[in-house]
Amino acid sequence: MLAYFSGLGPWAWVIAGVALMGLELLVPGGFLIWLGLAALATGLVVAVTDLPWQAALLLFVALAPAFVLAGRRLLRDRPDGTARDVPHLNHRARALVGRVFTLEAPIANGEGRVRVDDSSWRVLGPDLPGGARVRVVRVEGATLVVEGA
After folding, report:
1. What's the rounded mean pLDDT across residues 109-113?
2. pLDDT value at 140 more than 80
3. Nearest Cα to 31, choosing from 62, 75, 61?
């Protein structure tokens, strides 16, 4: 079996790389894509330099962790824990802190409602009449804590 794959030369690495990247679709996690790219890079080097299979395997063993670490660094989140390109993804309410809204329903006994775009949010704060302006000061679960603006 090894003789068959070593006989393929650089194509064995290209096939392995494409297979690993294809497996990423079945088992997502952002790991196999980098191994697949390392295999493709190994195939490119083998095609250009005609390395024996033993040296190519050692090259892959060296490139695989380098590609994985580079990929992790490239896609790493910011130090504050937010994603690089969409900071409030899955944390929509956090984006509302500091914004001012008009009360949809009065705050009575510390509880009311405010309209945010196409949705209505429960708010907690001082008793205020409907139509009053409020500023979001923090978020507690799916509830906005507000103060008079």
Report:
1. 90
2. yes
3. 75
Which uninterrupted H or E stretch holds 99?
Answer: none
Residue range 33-57: mean pLDDT, rounded: 92
- Number of Cβ within a 10 Å radius of residue 35: 22
Strand 133-140 relative to strand 111-116: parallel, antiparallel, unpaired?
unpaired
**Nearby residues of 73 by Cβ (< 8 Å), 6 or more positions away:** none
Place of tokens 């079996």: 1
The answer to whether residues 54 and 11 touch, using CB atoms and an 8 Å cutoff, is: no
Q: Render 47-88 in DSSP notation, one character per residue.
A: HHH---HHHHHHHHHHHHHHHHHHHHHHHPPPTTS--SS-TT
